[in-house]
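Hello Y.,

Per our agreement to keep a running log of every chain we model this quarter, I'm adding this entry. I've kept the format consistent with earlier entries: sequence first, then predicted structure.
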Amino acid sequence: MDRRVWQESRALRDAGYRVSVICPKRGEFTLAYEKLEGIEIYRYPLHEARGPLGYLVEYTWALAAQFILAVKVYHRTRFRIIQACNPPDTIFLVALFFKLFGVKFLFDHHDLNPELFEAKFGKRSGLLYRLVCLAERMTYRAADVSIATNESYRAVALKRGGMKSERVFVVRSAPDPALLFTKPPDPALKQGKKFLIAYLGVMGAQEGLDLLLEALRLVVAKRGPDEVGCVLMGGGPELPHLTKLAHEMGLDSVVRFTGRVTDADLATTLSTADVCVAPDPKNPMNDQSTMNKVLEYMAFGRPVVMFDLTEGRRSAGGAALYARSNDPADFAAQILTLLNSDALREKLGQAGRGRIETTLNWATEKEQLLKAYELVMKG
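Predicted structure for the entry above:
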């Protein structure tokens, strides 16, 4: 389900590595073991948590399951490198055990956990927050090499993590344009409306979907419920709450929640959408993070509306309109600007696809991944 990790796994396989993946059971992926495209996958059951205590229980169970499966994989393969993709930042404990046997540890930094804690719980204090910060420091100390998803994360590795510059590689989460082809639009997806707005991603507390619903309410007030529809693709712990919130806002005829969708349905929906949205609010976490959904929107040549985030602007450049931080009224205004101009939508969409084809694509990013592995193997 994690496109980045699957891309990394396939790239390493193609480079001659034997790859085993340990991950949770999610969605339709429920087998405890299977081999896909030459990659061995071991899965453990896991339920998504809510609240600090729930996360503590979830991560403790996950760590135990990861350790047991890692022992199983080591018995079968005698692996030489263990790569940890956070969150959480506790997997270094598994890596430390295997370092006793000469295994090297590569840290693949997906999320800024201290900032993620603040985004979820609204504070930077307390025992759990201090433990999160400690886990991050210990992860970097244990890592032989780390890879970051962007320059902001690389700066964290150098400053907070204390890593040497030559041991930190930037490997962006980038789509492969050869695998993401625009499909013919499907008018049925618009359900009789003139415009379709699309969102792709996790339905979590920190994704700003409450702000998006407020913006959609304002868009509908201007254009009318018969002109504008919105499809929100993805699952997550906030889905029931968001469905209820949309109903309370009177958006039942406008907003459609699909849950997780297949790659084929995703391609058709994004090819049909007139505008794609990334409502992630500005906070220390989101401002430094690269949103995969923005890059996927761009790969399908869709214009994007998002809040003005540092890494978001580095990714999208001229492919997006940027709303004032956390302001749903301005977010709605940017959506309306795009709905009012066919030419502007076309211009931004072409700019995004161009960036994916020339710079922000997996064909170039995977070379940095392989360089990181080469350095790990050297010691």
